[in-house]
Amino acid sequence: MTPEATKGEFAFIDWLRRRTPAAARVVLGPGDDTAALNWPRDVPCLVTTDMLLDGSCFILAEAGPRRVGRKAMAVNLSDIAAMAGRPVAAVVGVGLPRSGGRVLAEELYLGLREVADAFGTAVVGGDTNSWDGPLVISATVLGEATPPGPVRRSGARPGDWLMATGTFGGSIRGKHLNFTPRVREAIALQAAVRLHAMIDVSDGLAADVWHLCEESGCGAIVRAADVPVDCAARELHDGKTPLEHALGDGEDFELAFAVAPADGRRLIETQPLQSVPVCHVGEFVESGLWLEENGARRSLAPAGYIHALD
Ligand SMILES: [Mg+2]
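Above: the input record for the complex with magnesium ion. Below: its predicted structure, written as tokens.
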């Protein structure tokens, strides 16, 4: 690294340190060789990381750096939510294009702080580097499990209800950048009922329900009439039906989960989440992934493609 680049990095770190508030769990924030956190005894530490690439996961020129920074943090918070965890701290690595890197780095940071602050997540460190390639940003979030422990993908059983928060499809219309990670909702669900399995929907409702099925060693039926289709999915006129968008689009960052039927009924009746409705989308069964529509059951591809009746 050239002396100017080194100086630039130090100046950026100074800029960061001035903007880093004290946080209860943070013993050491940016400025030392590592950060240091207080961690309560006997609480599992959840760790997740996600790397976003300009041109593949987002288009920087279209999204703008603040929204990219926000997304880099929010996708990780969504994974912590999937485990019913509470985010605590984050570190962020950034590969900056050589020109305009400093301004870009500041904008990314302000974007990721926006969503980190909203969820009590301290940004405690990271690394910036420059290269001749496009922007790369990778955030890692540490979180703590909430009682009775992390919710895994593997606990769904035949007979369980398949449930979901929010609505699905058409996220390309904006939700993929400005979604709210369902951290509070997951913690509230974990406090209200026994969650057998859970996942955040990043690949698409059908694909992520199938991930639950694979890990749980069972199958699932999705009822077409009960899939909560986002109004954005109805605004895309590209030959696919709104239902196909809801099942296949991805980046909804809602929660899909499995509970015993009695708990499912209670969630539907009480609707304990203030921000978003909970829907009963289907059931877990012995095997296969199915779509039930107008009394007929068809095979549903994990990508959201609905096979014709045979
Ligand atoms: Mg996930």
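Notes for the reader.
Residues 79, 82, 200, 202 surround magnesium ion (CB under 6 Å).
The mean pLDDT is 94.
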